[in-house]
Amino acid sequence: DQQVKQNSPSLSVQEGRISILNCDYTNSMFDYFLWYKKYPAEGPTFLISISSIKDKNEDGRFTVFLNKSAKHLSLHIVPSQPGDSAVYFCAASGPLNTNAGKSTFGDGTTLTVKP
Amino acid sequence: DAGVTQSPTHLIKTRGQQVTLRCSPKSGHDTVSWYQQALGQGPQFIFQYYEEEERQRGNFPDRFSGHQFPNYSSELNVNALLLGDSALYLCASSEGLGVGYGYTFGSGTRLTVV
Q: Which residues on B lie below 8 Å from A44 (Cβ)?
């Protein structure tokens, strides 16, 4: 039973447009969510996170939205750049008081930004 | 500032053998977590070490064991290798037990079991 799902294996967008990557989770005990970006032959790199007490977190071109009732989060990249082309992983952790150290990852979405 | 260093980068082992993978965490980090990433899938949590003790463990058999040394570096040992153990093994370090600021991952060790 996969607790974190990224239902779109791939996404292609034009440079300058918005990229929206989606993630669904089933475990209501998760209370912290993260996005990682991975280039080929490298390990994942932390991008942005959000606590369950918030519904939005913004960092430059990257914004993560959390809809707890729908158990859904999304990552918006605006504007998209060719250098954003990578695999994006959604990850969830929690509850933080007992299970802080473990992250459960989705299978990733490959984003391609076309010039 | 060196990030997470893993060795070796690639390894080929025969079914039934044992393997040891090594990880040096990012400077300033004291916690090491190990993940297994099969092709086309996301990383799966194996276990986490803090203060030289295993603090959390994922759904992996006892064939998977680890160790953390006083300098915070860590080893992952896998005994009685199976073909299904072929994967990318990622080491991730962090400051403390939480994931508040995310992990810093190494580039991984690609293990192939033949």
A: 43, 90, 103, 105
